Structure formats: C-alpha cells, structure tokens
Amino acid sequence: MTVRPALDVAAAIATRLADPGTVSLGCREHRQHLAHGPSGIALLHIERAANDLGPWQYAHDWLTAASRRPMTSGADSHPFYGTPALAHAVACAAGSLPGSYQRALDALDRQVIRDTGRRLDAAHRRIDAGLLPKLAEFDTIRGITGYGAYLLRRDPDGSTTRAVLDYCIRLTEPITHHGDTLPGWWAKTGPSGRPDGGRFPGGHANNGLAHGIGGVLALLSLAVRYGTITDGHHAALRTILAWLDRWRQETGSGAAWPYWICRDELRSSRPTPYVPSRPSWCYGTAGLARARQLAALALGDTRLRTEAENALSTALTDTGQLRTMTDHGLCHGVAGLAHVAARTADDAHPEAAARLRAAIPALVATLYPPGTDPALTAKRLLGDAGAGPGLLDGAAGTALALLAHGMGTPPRSGWDTCLLIV
Fold first, then answer.
1. Beta strands in 266-335 (DSSP E)
2. Shortest CA distance to 31 belongs to which of 388, 413, 416?
3. Can you tell me the distance from the alpha carbon of 109 to that of 46, in angstroms, rounded to the nearest whole number?
4. For residues 125 and 148, what is the distance between their CA atoms, to the nearest angstrom?
C-alpha cells in the first residue's frame, strides 16, 4: 500500500534537486563524496526513475556532474569517496536501466578490484606485523568492509570478494598488544580516527555499523545470503556475536549496545553505566539489531533472531532513546531509523514485523507532520545548512527513505546496499 504524503515530500525534494547547476554542495571535497556529493543525489533520481516516478534524465545529469572531473582512485579514495562512490551510483543505474552505463561500469569495477587488492595486501602486512588497525582499514564508510559491500553485489563469488571475506574472518582473531589480549579490530585511536589519549588511552573497540565491527558482522552475514561462504565464516560470526553479547546493556525495555569499548572497560569487564543514546544506523540499536538479525538468519539461530527483532522494536518506542534523535538524515537521524526498521521488518517473524511496521508511521510523521505542505517540508529539509542536500545526512537520503516508505516496498535500485542492511 502506497503512502501518498511520503511520496509527495520525496517528489518535492527531488524537484528542488533536479538541476545540478542550481544546487550548492558545499566544499570542494564533497564533489566526489557519496555522502555529500552528486553521486549520492543521483541515487534519489535513479530510484525515482526505477519506479517510473521521474525522468532518467535527472539521474543522468547528476551522474554526469559526479564524473565531470577526474575521479580519485587508489590510496586517496574509499567506498564513499572517488571512484568507488561513483561506481555504486552507476551500478544502481545500470541495474535499473538494462543496457545502460555498461562500459563505464566495467571500467569502474576494474578499478575498485585493483584498489581493494591493494587495501587487502596492506591489511595483511599489518596483521603479520602484529600491529593494531586503523578504523579506516576495515570500516563500512572508508574501509575494506565498504568495498566488500560493493563487490558482494557486483561479483558475489569473485576471487576479490572472497578475499575480502577471508580478511574479515582474520580480523576477528585476537591480537596481543602491550601484554593485553585484544579483539583483532581494536583500533589504536579514538572513534574519530585520531589519537585521543585523554578519552581513549590505549584505543578502543568500535561496535558501530558505520565504523566498527557491526559492519563486518553485517557483511559476513549478507555473504551467506548470497551463497558465498569461506573457511571460518560461521566461527567469525559467532566471535563477533559473543563480543556484542558480552557488552549488551539493558535499557529497562530491551537490549542496547554501547557505541564502543575503551581499554579500562575491557580490563574491568564492565561498560560504563547505560545512558540512552541514538538508536541510529551508524551507531546504536538500529544498525546493530539489523546486523544481528542478518547473522541470525545466516546461522539459522531463532533465539538470536527474536532477540534482535525485539531489541529494535522496543527501541522504536523507547522515549529515552527516541529523545536523542534530533536529526532527520539516514546516518544518525529519523529517516535512517525508519528505513532500517522497514528492512528489518522485511525479514522478521510476522509478529515482530507487525510491531516494527506499526512504529514506522510515527517516526515518519516527525519528518512531515500530518497536513504539512510537501513543498514547504522540502524547503525546510533542504534549508538545513548543517545537513545539506546529500545522501547520508541530508535531504536526498531523507527523500530516499520516504520514497521507500511511500512505495511500501524495498528499493528497486539497491541504493541502500552501501549501508550494509541488505
């Protein structure tokens, strides 16, 4: 069943983002960024065109804008910047418009494979040397897990895809550093990626879907869905799940997980006391509950599946957690929470699916209160200078979530595969 107001707001945002020449993208670095730049905005027009709601010309114009300058590849690029970012958008377009963009996509695929291979070689050298990783080595936004998200869709049984999965499995092996036994994904920095001896002396273990082990869990789980399983696959899933079980916290209404664990918490085996935090895609209950549900499906674990679905459904009505949601975007805002809830409901037990879907309209209503004019809503969302017009924080991503909600079906273009929730 379609939801007309959601479609109308998404359409109003798309109309304001129709012409790349009239949209300000902020700093120059945003031009090649999937989160903030043309390739992310192209996804909105690709998804609308795939649903026969808008012209393909708008999508083509934004892809042209994204590729107008030489694209960054190699060490200075990552899944959300440069060639890989453009590759994701072009793949979504080519998959929705058969026969289009194939030569460009083939060239982009070859570059992504080369870059992934170089990343993998460097990562294995680091592990062989007994050194701790940087978050950007493995995370979803900047690291090997993000490359895996792309490759799993493009070439699920390919040798590079399997090499990514093998690396992810190796990442779950413990490492000894300064006399402490640490999880293999323990970063020597703070969550910002920079040394932070004040707040994170000795580094931290990041649990998030965007920047931590939650993304690795999701990728390994989705690979099982694609039929791509490597040696040690299920054991690695169990290792990550056991880590998250160890740090699980009770909110009073359900389960939650801390964003990260620092060295003192690891040594004492006690996390800091629970404080309500955003149940978002990037960090918190939404992203981790979806990753754990995907792991449950991969392992055939009914108990884990029920726990994951219950954790998200309770978070959707937990006023303590919801009070922390002050943004509208996909990354850490309401649109992302609603979209993750919908994708989780697609795979949930019928009773859990009903609870999840019942909570989504109230979330969406915070983006456009009933009776609000769609054009005014679009103007307000695009007027948020801090969020911008882009995919992760901005109006284009919010519109994509509203479009999926309005259509009542999963995205046709697969734009959300970069989020590792499908």
1. none
2. 388
3. 19
4. 19
pLDDT in tens, 159-212: 999 999 999 999 999 999 888 899 999 999 999 999 898 999 999 999 999 999
User: 273-282: b or e for each residue (b if 16 or more CB lie within 10 Å)?
Assistant: eeebbbbbbb
Residue 329 token pair: 């975007």
Q: Is 249 helix (H, G, I), strand (E, B) or coil?
A: strand
Cβ neighbourhood burial of 386 (10 Å; 0-12, 13-18, 19+)? exposed
Residues 6+ apart with CB under 8 A from 224: 233, 297, 298
What is the dihedral sign for C-alpha 354, 356, 359, 361? negative
- The torsion defined by the Cα of 344, 350, 352 and 353, in degrees rounded to 10, comes to 40
H helices present in 228-349, as ranges: 233-246, 263-268, 285-299, 302-315, 319-322, 334-346
Instruction: Give 45's DSSP letter.
Output: H
Q: Please list, in sequence order, all residues whose beta carbon lies within 8 angstroms of the beta carbon of residue 23, skipping any fewer than 6 positions away.
A: 16, 17, 41, 389
**Token pair 């580094």 is at which residue?**
203
Annotate 68-95 with DSSP letters as a single string: SSPPP-GGG-BTTBSHHHHHHHHHHHHH
By residue count, the chain amounts to 422
The predicted model scores a pTM of 0.98
Which band of pLDDT confidence, cut at 50, 70 and 90, is reported for residue 5?
very high
Whether 294 and 222 have beta carbons less than 8 Å apart is answered as: yes
**What is the DSSP code string of 281-294?**
SSSSHHHHHHHHHH
